[in-house]
Amino acid sequence: MALILLNEVSLAYGHVPLLDRVRLAIERGERIGLVGRNGTGKSSLLKVLAGREKPDDGEVQRQQGVRWAYVEQEPALDNHATVFDVVSAGLAHVRGLIDRYAQHQDGDLDALQNEIEALDGWQWEQRVEATLQRLHLPRDAMVDGLSGGLRKRVALAQALVSAPDVLLLDEPTNHLDMDAIEWLEGLLCEFKGTVVVISHDRAFLDKVTTRIVELDRGVLRSYDGNFSTYQQLKEEQLAQEAVVQAKADKLLAQEEVWIRKGVEARRTRAQARIERLQRLRQQRAARRDAMGRVRMEVHSGSASGKLVAELERVSKAFGEGDQRRTVVKDFSATILRGDKIGLIGPNGAGKTTLLRLILGLLPPDSGQVRQGTRLEIAYFDQMRERLDLEATLEDFISPGSEWIEIGQRRTHVKSYLGDFLFSPARAHAPVKTLSGGERNRLLLARLFARPANVLVLDEPTNDLDIDTLELLEQLLADYDGTVFLVSHDRRFLDNVVTSTIVYEGDGRWREYEGGVTDWVAQSTRLHGRAPVWDVADQVVAAAPRKSDVDVPAATATGTTAAAAPTPSAPPTKRKLSYKEQRELEALPGRIDALEAEQKAIDEALADGSLFTTDPTRAAEMATRHAEIESALMEALERWETLSQPS
Questions:
Q1: Span 533-560, pLDDT tens digits
Q2: Are strands 307-318 and 325-336 parallel, antiparallel or unpaired?
Q3: Cβ pair 151, 75 in contact under 8 A
């Protein structure tokens, strides 16, 4: 039996169905990656699995005795406790058993001792200490003084120490540095239980997952394998789906033309064809097409000088006496217009300090920094400090004006917001109503609306869905200005940057050509060993997503208005030959058989699962579906011809 089983589960907010009678079985030992566009309901599905949220309809079955831990995207922690105490709360059950044993509150101490030993309870403090060390967490620090990234790691540690059977993780890599991400990858790969994780880190999903479950338009589709396998299968499915939908739209358009010519609705086969047209209209109206894609364009402003910045033996330190810490030590570099620089280092290494030195926003303690000319800098801040939560989306993007000018193009702010998938109705909604991913998207919209020839992006990938990530990659790769990119998303860095500046300890930074994979290779040759965190994953270039076919439906016309005008005299039916009469008699059976076969194909392809389990068979059925459409049209038209009056 599955550990968790969803049976015909539905969930909706307002009129938007997030889950539409979905089925999902989660088995022991699986590592499932849950993917989908922002706002499709991935976090809501995870809460349903964790029992934090009840579905509107359907059934959620869980095996008795199964333990699970859930790490939220924005975890709620006790701000007045130390890190050690908060993480230890994950072992509250074990500590309670030990307290009962110590106080002799249970008559059967042997059974109590066996239960504690089965949970490895006697070593609970060592487990907490080891987890804190691995996640680089300060044992005695108060939680209220921690950054967002450290808080996320505390919540992750609290879940891990409990040794759950099912681990539910919502964006666990957000704010983690590469060292911690790699450790988490290794831990999850060795984890004996089941993992369900929401993540937009494609390299992480490739390394960890054994199955990808996609939430798309309220429907769950499962793909065996890691993220790269899913991408390949998904592209094939979208291509087949586009073909089927285009054929259906073409047929609908042909039938709309036919009904406008006028038919005698009382005739049996003509009436059947009208009913078929009604079904086509209903199917087209009910078909929930793939969501739109973000359209991004950067206002690059005027070109900067060829030199952006030149640093010569620059150093910077903070603190006094024994507390003095050198963040940048004897760093030299020359950055030219068009360079795309990735900054890599653990949290707290000083990436932001180095950026401020490069941009002339912070004076060095020693060394020289020479700035280029005509620099126009746009800054994307990691912690969203510039978000005015009370402002409307429209005012935040373009205060005091309804228009935005990008290059030579003047765009209405509502249209511009639409490019970033914000509907016109939401233009007047406050920023505080947006999800984390939507806020990041809004920040990108504001960033790209400002003229700039230098972009500084500090963790822009957090909370963005994979489609938007791929588009942002392409946009930055084509951008003719200079880019500074701070990110722990290895694949994103590999696909964008031309060089990397890497922290190598004790305030030392070194520049390497290429992305993360190139840095690992060069560092290994230079030092004779891999760097501190090994990120030499095989990088698979993301395939461009095929465009969904968007054929507008023909205008619906009621059957009453479609009735033919009454003829002035009753027509006389021409005499059919023997062969034609036999053909006419056989046509109803042929039409019924074709419609039955087509219905069976529709049902087989409806949930998309056949595209993953047997893609060859799915392709054959899609081709046959198109052949049936043509055959049906021919049969219906032949019936009409043979039944026509002379």
A1: 433 332 222 233 333 333 233 333 333 3
A2: antiparallel
A3: yes
